[in-house]
Write a structure and sequence with these properties.
six-stranded mixed sheet, four-stranded parallel sheet, binds zinc ion, binds pyridoxal-5'-phosphate, globular, Rossmann fold, alpha/beta
Length: about 425
């Protein structure tokens, strides 16, 4: 196999071989995958080839990740461990657009990936690399969706999967997936950041391949969210891409992919990237406001468990994405997240709490005059509604601590007689 890419330290620029089970530089910082793309001879030949693959029956071409393999990981398409993933819908809802205060708002629903979150995009690449490295064991620390995704892809590839989860902070839908797909699930005392340290050390000692967002290849797969949304907009970039930020891998990845597309002369302009954090887990927001390095949040706290992270791994890359794209970071309360979720859900779209930070963030940025009503905005919904049924039911029944349901839809109980039923129907 011809390995055309390298790993490079994001801080000291030290370089390493492209295929090595390595996640950090000798200096301790994270690594980027650096490609040596051959610039296409005519500008549009690559995007034409990507469009042509939309009609292919090959699984890798059907994948919303491997369809873009020249820009993700240039390997033979038969080597990819793919389901396939991606190819998610771009929804438009007048109701949600009006709530956000944006005329042209499209929501890309990454919860429609095979295991219900965008994590599948990174995981197909991560597990493919694990196979190329000859690894038979994979592991991750996770607040849920990473573990669900890894467990599924590992099962498909015939590898053993080990999942480290923080105590208490995991949504039921996600935990049930990890167990069901057969991952060895190890609950570690302490928060996510602690589980993350344990996972890294355990991988080193037990010879497993680490598939946290620290893993540079996962970010390569996640770049494809950006490619695919551009493709579905006829390669016309929106003004803004808005998405939730937890470990900050997704925002970093989308920007990296778009910047690479720009270097190839295939991006008309760079969309501004807005990262939305929960107020109780807002270290990137604070770093941007203060113009400082990241100071971890000691006790991150939000109902949006997928973004309940105090010390995000990819903060440098994400801050670069925000600054260089002319974007921003916003924070939203759990109340704002859950109300936005009720609006997204009632539009028939539906998503888990963290995803709806996107819409809550859009609304706030419009109110603050940062996003203009007439700008073209794509919001990313990162995970499926069914991931966290407790949050949804708790909201509608008014049983969540500190959340007042603005748009409740609680089930009603009636006696068995038809008149009572008709009254409940408002008929
Ligand atoms: C992982 C995840 C996030 C956070 O993404 P990062 O890349 O860690 O910033 C947001 N929403 C959902 C549903 C997720 O699974
Ligand atoms: Zn370094």
């Amino acid at each position: 196999m011809n390995i055309t890419w390298k790993l490079r330290c994001v801080v000291c620029q030290a370089e390493y071989d492209g295929l090595e089970a390595r996640y950090r530089c000798a200096c301790g910082e994270t690594l980027d995958v650096v490609h040596s793309f051959a610039a296409p001879s005519d500008r549009e030949s690559l995007t034409r080839e990507f469009d042509r693959r939309l009609a292919s029956r090959h699984r890798a071409d059907r994948s919303g990740v491997w369809r873009f393999r020249e820009l993700v990981l240039p390997i033979d398409r038969d080597q990819a461990i793919t389901k396939p993933e991606g190819d998610t819908n771009l929804y438009r809802s007048e109701r949600v657009a009006e709530y956000a205060g944006i005329d042209d708002l499209a929501l890309k629903h990454e919860g429609e990936n095979p295991t219900g979150s965008f994590k599948d995009r990174g995981m197909t690449v991560g597990v493919t690399v694990a196979r190329l490295l000859g690894m038979t064991r994979v592991a991750c620390a996770s607040t849920g969706n990473t573990s669900a995704s890894m467990a599924s892809y590992a099962a498909q590839a015939g590898m053993s999967a080990y999942v480290f989860i923080p105590e208490g902070k995991i949504a039921l839908g996600k935990l049930s997936q990890a167990l069901a797909y057969g991952a060895k699930t190890i609950q570690v005392e302490g928060n996510f950041d602690r589980a993350m340290l344990i996972a890294e050390e355990a991988c080193r000692r037990a010879g497993a391949y680490l598939l946290n967002s620290l893993n540079p290849f996962r970010l390569e797969g996640q770049k494809a969210v950006g490619f695919e949304l551009l493709q579905s907009l006829g390669w016309q970039p929106p003004d803004w891409i808005v998405l939730p930020g937890g470990n900050l891998g997704n925002s970093s990845a989308i920007y990296k992919g778009l910047a690479e597309l720009g270097d190839l002369g295939l991006l008309r302009h760079m969309p501004k990237i807005a990262v939305i954090q929960a107020e109780g887990a807002n270290p990137l927001y604070t770093a941007l406001i203060r113009g400082s390095d990241l100071v971890p949040v000691e006790r991150p706290d939000t109902m949006a468990s997928a973004i309940c992270i105090g010390g995000p791994v990819s903060w440098r890359k994400s801050l670069r994405a925000v600054r260089e794209s002319g974007g921003t970071v916003e924070q939203v309360s759990d109340q704002e997240i859950m109300d936005a979720k009720a609006v997204v859900d009632a539009a028939g779209i539906g998503a888990e709490p963290a995803s709806c930070a996107t819409v809550a963030g859009c609304r706030k940025l419009v109110a603050r005059g940062v996003i203009g009503r007439v700008e073209r905005v794509v919001g990313i919904l990162t995970g499926h509604l069914l991931k966290d049924p407790d949050a949804t039911i708790g909201y509608h029944t008014g049983s969540l601590d500190d959340i007042r349901p603005t748009f409740p839809n609680a089930p009603v109980r009636v006696s068995g007689d038809i008149d009572a039923v008709l009254r409940a129907m408002g008929a």
